[in-house]
C-alpha cells in the first residue's frame, strides 16, 4: 500500500488491539469502508495488539477474562500455547475475515487541529486529515517506573513487566518483585517454581478476593473507575478496585509463603534494597511490576487534559473535543469493556459525521 500523505478520510482509528479492532468492525457495520472512509493504523509489525508482547509462560489457559471480539468467537484454542501466539493468530484471522485492512507499521506521532473542522494526524507515512478520531492505543507502550533513592546505583538487573522474558531467566537469582497487581503475583508464583528466591514489596497491603466475581461486582468496580475519568483524573486499573482473585494456585503460593508481602522499601543500594528501620534484603534483580499509563502523548497538541492530569470523558468522547473518542481507556480497559466502548464510540462518531458537514 502507498503512503498516507495527503489522505482525507472520515475516521482514523489509532491502534489495532481489542478496542481498535472492535471500533473498526463496528465502523464497517455502519457502512464506512476501510481505506476509503476509515484508516486503521497500528504501530506493530503484525497483528496481536499488546498480547503479542506478553511473556511466553503466560499461556492461553492462564489468561483471565479474554472476551471474544464482536462477530467472531475464539474457538478450539490450546490452553498450553502461549497467549501471544493464540491471540495474535486470532486477531490476524479477525482482520482478514472482516477485511479491516489495518495499516502497519505506522507510528502516529501527533494529532492537532487541521483547519476547516478537521483533525490533522501526523504519521510516519505522512499527514492525514480526518473528521473524527478513535484512539485505541492502550497502555503497553508506557510502562511505569517509580523512582527511589539510589536506584541508579543498583549493581544487579532491573526490568519492568513489559520486558519480562519468562521465569527461566531467573533461576537461582534473588529477585525483589515490586507491585501488588495481577502481574506481580503471577511473576512471584512463576519465579518461585523456577527456583528463584523471591521477596515481594508493595505500597499497600494487597487485597485478595474470595469467591466469584459476579456482574454486579463488576459493574460496581467499573463505575468507580468511570467516576475518575468523568472528573478528569487519571484512570486507575479495574483490578485496583476489584482486588486480586484468590484461585487454587494463589492459595498454594500463600501457604508456601511466596505471597508474603513487605512494605515498600525506602531506598536502593548496590547490593539490594533497604528500609529505614534497618531491614535489608539482598537482590540480584528488581522486577518492577508497577503497571502502565495510557499512551496518549500524541494527543497532547489538542490540550485534552484537565488540571487533575487525566482526560475528562463523557462516555467514550473527550469532553474537550467531540471529534476524539478514547476506547480501551479507563473503565473500558478490559477485553469486554473495549468491545463495548468500540461499539459506543462508533455510534457517536456516526452521529457526528451526519451532523457536521465535511471539512473544506
Number of strands: 18
Distance between the termini: 26 Å
Q: What is the helix fraction of residues, given as a range?
A: 10-25%
Mean pLDDT: 90
* Largest sheet geometry: 8 strands, mixed
Explain what you see.
There is one protein chain. The two termini are 26 Å apart. This protein is α/β, with parallel strands linked by helices and 360 residues long. Helix 1 (18-29) packs across helix 7. The model has no long low-confidence stretch (mean pLDDT 90). It contains 7 helices and 18 strands. Strands 1, 2, 3, 4, 5, 16, 17 and 18 form an 8-stranded mixed β-sheet that branches. The chain has a 5-stranded parallel β-sheet with strand order 6-15-7-8-11, with helices on one face. 24% of the residues lie in helices and 22% in strands.
Amino acid at each position: 500500500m502507498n503512503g498516507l500523505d495527503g489522505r482525507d478520510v472520515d475516521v482514523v482509528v489509532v491502534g489495532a488491539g481489542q478496542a481498535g479492532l472492535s471500533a473498526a468492525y463496528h465502523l464497517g457495520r455502519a457502512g464506512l469502508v476501510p481505506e476509503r472512509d476509515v484508516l486503521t493504523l497500528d504501530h506493530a509489525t503484525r497483528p496481536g495488539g499488546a498480547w503479542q508482547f506478553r511473556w511466553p509462560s503466560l499461556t492461553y489457559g492462564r489468561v483471565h477474562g479474554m472476551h471474544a471480539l464482536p462477530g467472531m468467537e475464539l474457538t478450539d484454542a490450546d490452553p498450553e500455547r502461549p497467549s501471544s501466539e493464540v491471540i495474535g493468530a486470532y486477531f490476524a484471522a479477525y482482520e482478514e475475515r472482516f477485511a479491516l485492512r489495518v495499516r502497519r507499521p505506522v507510528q502516529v506521532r501527533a494529532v492537532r487541529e487541521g483547519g476547516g473542522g478537521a483533525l490533522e494526524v501526523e504519521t510516519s507515512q505522512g499527514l492525514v486529515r480526518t473528521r473524527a478520531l478513535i484512539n485505541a492505543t492502550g497502555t503497553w507502550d508506557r510502562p511505569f517506573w517509580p523512582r527511589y533513592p539510589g536506584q541508579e546505583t543498583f549493581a544487579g538487573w532491573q526490568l519492568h513487566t513489559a520486558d519480562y522474558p519468562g521465569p527461566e531467566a531467573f533461576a537461582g537469582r534473588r529477585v525483589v518483585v515490586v507491585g501488588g497487581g495481577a502481574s506481580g503475583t503471577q511473576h512471584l508464583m512463576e519465579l518461585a517454581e523456577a527456583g528463584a528466591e523471591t521477596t515481594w514489596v508493595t505500597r499497600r497491603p494487597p487485597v485478595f478476593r474470595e469467591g466469584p466475581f459476579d456482574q454486579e461486582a463488576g459493574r460496581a468496580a467499573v463505575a468507580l473507575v468511570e467516576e475518575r475519568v468523568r472528573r478528569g483524573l487519571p484512570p486507575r486499573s479495574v483490578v485496583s478496585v476489584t482486588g486480586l482473585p484468590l484461585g487454587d494456585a494463589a492459595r498454594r503460593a500463600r501457604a508456601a509463603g511466596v505471597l508474603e508481602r513487605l512494605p515498600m522499601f525506602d531506598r536502593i543500594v548496590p547490593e539490594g534494597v533497604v528500609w529505614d528501620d534497618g531491614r535489608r534484603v539482598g537482590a540480584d534483580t528488581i522486577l518492577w511490576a508497577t503497571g502502565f499509563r495510557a499512551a496518549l502523548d500524541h494527543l497532547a497538541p489538542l490540550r485534552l487534559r484537565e488540571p487533575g492530569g487525566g482526560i475528562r470523558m463523557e462516555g467514550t468522547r473527550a469532553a474537550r473535543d467531540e471529534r476524539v473518542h478514547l476506547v480501551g481507556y479507563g473503565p473500558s480497559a478490559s477485553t469486554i469493556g473495549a468491545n463495548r466502548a468500540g461499539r459506543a464510540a462508533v455510534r457517536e462518531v456516526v452521529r457526528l459525521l451526519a451532523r457536521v458537514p465535511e471539512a473544506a
